[in-house]
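Deliverable D5.2: sample structural annotation.
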Amino acid sequence: MSIQNYLTQQKAGERSQEWVVIEDFYNKKLWHQVTMAILKYVKVGPHKSGSLTELYKVFITDFDHRISPLALSSIGLCVSEDVPVTQRLEFLESLLKKVTSHTEAKIKIMSKIGSLKIDHGQIDEIEDMIKNLESLVDSLGEVTPVHGCFYELSAKYYKVKGDYNNFYRDSLRYLGCIDIDELTAKQQQEHAFHIALSALLGDKVYNFGELLAHPLLDALKVACPWIVELLLAFNRGDMDKLEELQPQWTQQPDLARNEVA
């Protein structure tokens, strides 16, 4: 499909007004403006299955060399969610080659690639990737939004490895880089539960103060109040409360195994 036919098709769709603007920017070669318009478009759904993949292949590849690497990485990551799972890794690795000159863009895409490899069970490749990413992150100097991408990956890796200490550390670092309101209620509950679990099981986690003060913990107070009470009991050394909560925490496999150990 030609670009002109593609634009005509999009202008006849539900978001026609956006495409009228995008086409105008494109025809005038206003690359920054068209980039910002496309970035807004891909972030705001819903999108029909395959539509973002088509957008990238037919339209974006025509001028992707004119898009800043950081913006291209953001657009590409949104598009990658629409790419068939069997082709997603290949798509991201191809995208990575286009942003090699920009450290933050590389970190974002490499972190996503690492996450996919964990999902595919390719765990052995991740340790070296994390070391490489850590060097890139350290080279940035100050904390940037892409730090969250790295810490999300490293926390995911340590969770799979059963490394409670490092999972706890990097999960809190991840949360420090994001706005938790961007997480769904379910995501908040899952993050809070696993971080709380790692706090209880990590043999080098000596203080729960940072976690107990974190607003994310509110997500557990209704969904799983006993683990919040358990954290508080451990934090103040309340043995009576720990014994009272034993029927609940012994039903949690990881905590039960730790008791046996």
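Annotation notes: The mean pLDDT is 91. The chain has 17 helices and no strands.
The annotation will be released with the project's public dataset once the embargo ends.
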